[in-house]
Amino acid sequence: MSDKSKWDWNIGKRDVAELTDVEGRVQQVHEYVASHDGERVAAPVLIEEGKFSLAVNGALMDRTWEKVWMIRFTPGDRLTAIVMDDDEWTMMVEGETWGSTFEYVWDPRFSAGGDVVAVLAKKDFEYRVVQNDRPWEKGFISLRDFALSPGGRSAAVTVQTVELKEADIFTFARGTWSVAVDGAAWPANYLNTWTPIFSPDGTKVAAQVRRDILDYTICVDGKEWPAGFSCVWEPIFGKGGQTIAPVRSGGHWFLYEDGEPLWKTPYVQLWQQVLSPDGEHVAAVAATSFGRWTVVVDDRPWPAHWTHLVERPVFSPDGRHVAAVVKSGDRWSVAIDGKQWRETFDMVWPPIFAPGGELIARADRNGRRVLVVDDRVLEQPFDVLFEPETSPDGSSVLVKGIIDGRYLREVVPLNRLR
User: Fold this and answer.
1) 258-312: pLDDT as tens digits
2) C-alpha to C-alpha distance for 227 and 323, rounded to whole angstroms
3) DSSP 3-state assignment of 395?
């Protein structure tokens, strides 16, 4: 992430860009994306058939391509996009395209500092990871789930290592999938592999693997947990480098650590576990019975339940509070420490905690986007509202949105919103 201390944190509202002019000059404007610091807003635009460009702060880039999609700002606020020219795809970073081109490119990922951009790519019937315009030397038959280490130096991806002919059930049963780290596949093959993840220091990789029709487990750096289960979900790394994952055994779900039980309580469903910032606590989404969803913190379920949805929990910076998006019926809200906000919405995006503990979320109400702070809805609705950012000292929040064709950036003191 770019250095927040260098952003403009002066209290007040600023009109950054007028967007209606460019919208009147092109055939289509696709979805807008805002930079983290709020200084830029960009969208792919169709100028004419077969001719795309990017509009940045209401002005068209000089460069055009046959297609532009999936524009993103890196954590360092560099503008990126997947682009195509002459039926070949590549990455664009701040107007400059990579020298390498491919038959297809997808799933861009960024390092924590934003200096590394990585994608999956296909060329000459082989699939590779490409990091900063450097493709892996070794290609694979196929690949899918993809992870980049926090520093961006390493990449891991699930890969097909054995060719599988149509209806060849015997080769399938022996396993055709593995995990490749920096181009080198783990020695064992599996029926399936999913969701590789890196440890925070980037030295370990863990993934879900399926060894047999009904035999699943977790594998870390090519070494499997000794026990097998009827199903597993995505692991995370704990404070000391251990792996923590939900597993299904005996018809119920449990939380395990390095192959051994961490939580004793059985659940109807258990997943999306997260670690507190200090690594001392674990929260997860669980169903305590059919259709009764809640959050569990250190094996203690919240007393409240929701009928339709509980999303991945979020810890406060000090680890003392947990929040999650919740849904019952057709109404969305946010719950913190088991207590739901009074306000409900048509849709809610994942909340964030400010350094001081304030809980901030974006929501949709009656077709307009609103910002909500500690269950209080800001009076100003937006046509488009981007993810808010909090100041390093926790005193204010950066609000970024579009109203009536104008992109606005406003820094609001949090004490005014409590």
Assistant:
1) 999 999 999 999 999 999 999 999 999 999 999 999 999 999 999 999 999 999 9
2) 33
3) coil
Report d(CA 160, CA 186) in Å as an integer. Answer: 11
> Residue 262 and residue 244: Cα distance in Å, rounded?
8
SS3 of 324, please? strand
Burial class (CB within 10 angstroms; exposed 0-12, middle 13-18, buried 19+) of 319: middle
Nearest CA to 40 out of 19, 17, 20 is that of: 17
Q: Each residue of 169-190: pLDDT tens digit?
A: 999 999 999 999 999 999 999 9
- 405 falls within a domain: no
Q: Supply the range of the domain harboring residue 219.
A: 150-262
Indicate whether 331 and 289 sit together in one domain: yes
What is d(CA 97, CA 63) in angstroms, rounded to the nearest whole number? 10
| Together in a domain, 307 and 239 | no
Strand partners, 328: 331
Q: What are the CA-CA distances from residue 218 to residues 27, 101, 177, 263, 269 (Å)?
A: 49, 35, 14, 17, 18
Matching residue, tokens 């719950």: 335
Tens-digit pLDDT profile for residues 3-43: 899 999 999 999 999 999 998 899 999 999 999 999 999 99
pTM of the model: 0.94
Structurally, the chain folds into a number of domains equal to 2
Q: Is the same domain home to 257 and 280?
A: no
